[in-house]
């Protein structure tokens, strides 16, 4: 078919992709990844709606009682969100009426060993659904351990233990069976939920319904200099955030104290690359866009975007806030959202590498409500003279991309409080 005839045919049948006519067009299509097979008109509609929705969002705030700081959240249905708190509670929040249901934490089957740190104040820092949404993983009653529930009724399935010597900061499913955890002790572990169905891993001394599992692999991260860390150096090299790139079979981990991002080959479960970040202070959050092949890393003062194929920095954007830091990041199509320590949610157009702005020229910013703050003795002794907005420790869009759930609490460690709200 001649070129002119082909173009006319494509105009009559817009769902047919136009073949690239140059190297530039080919590279543009390749950069889109999984999006290249989609219809151009559909992509245009999604891109337009993603950029317009942040301007239309309005807040509905929820009362959580005296819960202390929401660290993690995950949509589990169109009408419910599950939250993890600093006070080590797992709570299902029904967004239509604000009703809360506490899920019992999975108990460990073995006592805490000597030398292990089990601080009740650490809380639940991560919640993740597996791809088929049949299991949900989070922390256990001991924050060093992994807890897995069967959905949708939160039936305790298994507890992963005898591995990490400090709190679990993040976890990610690789598929419906395997899950990776990153810990404050500077280690990463690979678990298989299928092990709980094998009698060898069951705790015969326990009368609980759930089983105990052990990690398949357990590795220490390396420092920015490339050498392995000594066991006593774990407090200096905390694995703070994880992301799994299914296209490249690669796991990215942020080591908060050294300001590095490390890349792991999940097939061999070994670290293959470690890069120092330009803005390496308080790197506590990480997000991945498979569509644009980008990682987003939040720091004390900037959001850094990295090419997921080469690990190199593409762009760094300042958050225009002093010392509060970026506490959560999330991709939704063309838009990257960032929750800050000053109670603001800002939006970045990934195509332009710029913040969304209002007609006045100011940054588009969603400022969250007051939430609840405990005015106890610590508050009156150290914090009463100042105002402390709620840090956005977690935020996530629903499947439709039209509703944004955000939650958190006061940034100072000594303060007790909470915030939760739905923007729609």
What features would you highlight for this structure?
single chain, 424 residues, Methylamine Dehydrogenase, Chain H, 4 helices, 5-stranded mixed β-sheet, globular
How does this model look, in words?
The N and C termini lie far apart (49 Å). The chain is globular and about 60 Å long. The strands form 7 sheets. Strands 1, 28, 29, 30 and 31 form a 5-stranded antiparallel β-sheet that branches. It has a 5-stranded mixed β-sheet with strand order 6-7-8-9-13, with no helix packed on it. It has one domain: YVTN repeat-like/Quinoprotein amine dehydrogenase (Methylamine Dehydrogenase, Chain H, 7 Propeller). The protein has 424 residues and is mainly beta. Belongs to the WD repeat DCAF12 family.
Q: Helix content range of the residues, please?
A: 10-25%
Broad CATH class: Mainly Beta
In whole angstroms, the N-to-C terminal distance is 49 Å
State the low-pLDDT regions, or none.
Answer: 9-16, 201-206, 224-235
Radius of gyration: 22 Å
Strand content: 35-45%
The assigned CATH architecture is 7 Propeller
Largest sheet: 5 strands, antiparallel
- Classify the fold: give the CATH topology: Methylamine Dehydrogenase, Chain H
List how many beta strands DSSP finds. 31
Instruction: Name the average pLDDT.
Output: 85
CATH H-tier superfamily: YVTN repeat-like/Quinoprotein amine dehydrogenase
Instruction: Indicate the overall shape.
Output: globular
- Number of separate structural domains: 1
- Quaternary: single chain
Report the structural category. mainly beta
Q: Tell me the number of helical segments per DSSP (H or I, 4 or more residues long).
A: 4
